[in-house]
Amino acid sequence: MPHRRLLAVLIIATVLGCQQLLGLTPGGSPSGTGGATGSSSTGGGASTSTSSSSAASSSTGGQGGATTSTSSTTSSGSTGSTGSSSSTGSSSSTSSSSGTGGTPCVGPLEFPVPITDMIDDLEHGGDSIPGTAGRCGTWFVYNDKTGPAQTPPSSMVFPSMPGYCSSYAMHTTGGPFTSYGGGIGFDLNNCGATREVYDASAHKGIAFWAKSTTAAGAALPIYLLVLEPATVPVGGTEGGTCTTPADAGVVCGDSHRLTVNLTTDWQEYHVLFIDLVQAGWGTKVSFDPSQILAMQFNVPTGQAFDFWIDDIGFY
């Protein structure tokens, strides 16, 4: 009997010794996994790993917009510096968001009318337009000084938060003004002393996103004004060539424009150069897209305003 017990002990010890030599745990799994289920690592050999991750986020800006995204990644067959390897991977992501009133948020290259030359997406946070494609200029506000103070003040024309599915846009409020109104705009080629012309003849029009923060359902009509030397009075640093109103038969200031009606939803507006016309009270001149001095978003007289401009460029 004692011999049998001794034999059993020897057998058990032998089995346990073999498990340790093979690197097996009592559950039959490889030891040394470091807590990573389903992975193994052998010095200088091959290893396999599988990982998956998913993330979802949502954000809501001041426009009531929301963004959600999910992603997953799977990979296998990652090896060390020696040995053989094989890998397969897949990733997927979806995103959707909406601005006020359900306006869809789309990427800059997926605008209803794609902008081929972005003048300013306002994400830089400064008062100057980006110095791309030979452009140089700053944003400014203006009014005829017949009404309440306009915001932002002329010395602090910087983008505000939030923009169209982005961080920043230009925002201005004011009026009503009774002489020629007010608005906001920027030069395209003004690096210092005198405003110069900018050649946009390679494009066919201007596109931009805008909205008005007025009572629901009330559209705000504004003019997109495109200034050129022939309509700007000569003299000073404004780059104009139009002779003074005192000259017989000459009336300056009737710049080419098109009316757009802003709503409380972000929308993209696109204006063809050929659709820009003068109001008709000034000296008639032909519009020339190679002679652009500035762009302005002007509110007619007698109209209080509160509106946003974002992502403006040529198409």
Provide a descriptive summary of the structure in words.
The protein has a domain at 107-314: Jelly Rolls. The protein is built from one helix and 13 strands; from the N terminus they run H-E-E-E-E-E-E-E-E-E-E-E-E-E. The chain has one helix spanning 2-22, and strands at 57-60, 66-76, 88-98, 117-120, 139-143, 170-174, 182-187, 205-212, 220-227, 256-262, 267-272, 294-299, 305-314. Strands 4, 6, 8, 11 and 13 form a five-stranded antiparallel beta sheet that branches. Strand 1 and strand 2 (66-76) form a beta hairpin. The longest helix is centred in the N-terminal third of the chain and has 21 residues, at 2-22. The N and C termini lie far apart (99 Å). The model is unreliable at 1-103 (pLDDT under 50).
List the helices and strands and how they pair.
Blueprint lengths: L1 H21 L34 E4 L5 E11 L11 E11 L18 E4 L18 E5 L26 E5 L7 E6 L17 E8 L7 E8 L28 E7 L4 E6 L21 E6 L5 E10 L1
Antiparallel strand pairs: 1-2, 2-3, 4-13, 5-7, 6-13, 7-12, 8-11, 8-13, 9-10, 9-12
Relative strand content: 25-35%
* Overall mean confidence score, pLDDT: 73
Q: Which second-level CATH architecture of one domain applies? A: Sandwich
The separation of the N and C termini measures: 99 Å
| Strand segment count | 13
Q: Which class do the helix and strand fractions yield?
A: mainly beta
In the CATH hierarchy, what is the superfamily of one domain?
Galactose-binding lectin
Helix/strand order, N-terminal first: HEEEEEEEEEEEEE
CATH topology of one domain: Jelly Rolls
Rg on CA atoms, Å? 33 Å
Summarize the biggest pleated sheet: 5 strands, antiparallel
Fraction of helical residues: under 10%
Number of helices: 1
Would you state the CATH class of one domain? Mainly Beta
Shape: globular
Low-confidence segments, given as residue ranges, are 1-103
